[in-house]
């Protein structure tokens, strides 16, 4: 893996995992202390502008990032019409687990402690993956997530978990509180004042990124 003049490696990758091929974008600072895998939300992809904004802050915090599609190109086309895959949490979690195994087997990435950043339904997939790979996942962050959809995995997650919710996202706040009560690992629930579900308000996403960076740096 080559390093650019800005001491950051950026390259597209193809993850041949779980019987499918998924596209991803890998960014690794030369002085990376860990690697954060992103599990995007329903109807989104590795191109999510919000996740990319968070990833950039993590990169400046000496954290590598892997943003990857949870669905194949064919599945994405079908999902756009039918929405049949975006809420298939077991499938999405299986893909996150496979991505963790892929990074753990990669010679340039295996030594980097891993964290998971999940948004919306991707948060549930991330928590399930953390429960299935406790030796690999050192921290989890959920942004506007549905951790409640992780169900039984909440009771066994051992990775320190940060749940971030917008202060005006009332329904999701309650769902996160219910999930928070079940998590036995070190945990925090952070509510960003004035923010709605997508954190589109000025400064809201910056706050999410700062919270996530600090959480990963502390626990990775």
Please work out how many helical segments DSSP would assign: 6
Number of spatially distinct domains: 1
Strand order in the largest sheet: 1-2-4-3-5-6-7-8
Query: Span from first to last CA?
Result: 22 Å
Instruction: State the fourth-level CATH superfamily.
Output: Alpha/Beta hydrolase fold, catalytic domain
Main β-sheet description: 8 strands, mixed
Give the overall average pLDDT: 93
Rounded Rg: 16 Å
Could you name the key traits of this structure?
220 residues; alpha/beta; Rossmann fold; 8-stranded mixed sheet; 6 helices; 8 strands; 36% helix; disordered N terminus
What does this structure look like?
The chain has one domain: 3-Layer(aba) Sandwich (Rossmann fold), CATH 3.40.50. 36% of the residues lie in helices and 26% in strands. It has 220 residues and is α/β, with parallel strands linked by helices. The radius of gyration is 16 Å and the shape is globular. It has six helices and eight strands, in the order E-E-E-H-E-H-H-E-H-E-E-H-E-H. An eight-stranded mixed sheet has the order 1-2-4-3-5-6-7-8, sandwiched between helices. Mean pLDDT is 93; it is low at 1-5.
Layout of secondary structure:
Elements: E1 8-17, E2 20-29, E3 34-39, H1 49-60, E4 63-68, H2 73-82, H3 89-105, E5 114-119, H4 121-132, E6 137-143, E7 161-166, H5 170-182, E8 187-192, H6 204-219
Parallel strand pairs: 3-4, 3-5, 5-6, 6-7, 7-8
Antiparallel strand pairs: 1-2, 2-4
Helix pairs in contact: 1-6, 3-4
């Amino acid at each position: 893996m080559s390093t650019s003049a800005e001491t950051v490696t950026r390259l597209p990758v193809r993850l041949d995992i779980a019987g499918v091929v998924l596209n991803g974008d890998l960014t690794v600072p030369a002085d990376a202390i860990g690697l954060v895998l992103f599990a995007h939300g329903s109807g989104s992809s590795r191109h999510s502008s919000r996740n990319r904004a968070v990833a950039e802050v993590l990169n400046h915090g000496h954290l590598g990032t892997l943003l990857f599609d949870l669905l194949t190109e064919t599945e994405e086309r079908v999902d756009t019409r039918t929405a049949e895959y975006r809420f298939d949490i077991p499938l999405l979690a299986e893909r996150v687990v496979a991505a963790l195994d892929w990074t753990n087997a990669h010679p340039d990435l295996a030594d980097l402690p891993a964290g998971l950043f999940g948004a919306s339904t991707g948060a549930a997939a991330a928590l399930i993956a953390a429960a299935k790979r406790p030796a690999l996942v050192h921290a989890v962050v959920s942004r506007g997530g549905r951790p409640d959809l992780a169900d039984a995995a909440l009771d066994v997650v051992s990775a320190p978990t940060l749940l971030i919710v917008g202060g005006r996202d009332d329904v999701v706040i309650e769902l996160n509180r219910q999930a928070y009560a079940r998590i036995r690992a070190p945990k925090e629930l952070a509510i960003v004042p004035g923010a709605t579900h997508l954190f589109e308000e000025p400064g809201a996403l910056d706050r999410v990124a700062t919270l996530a960076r600090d959480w990963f740096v502390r626990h990775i």
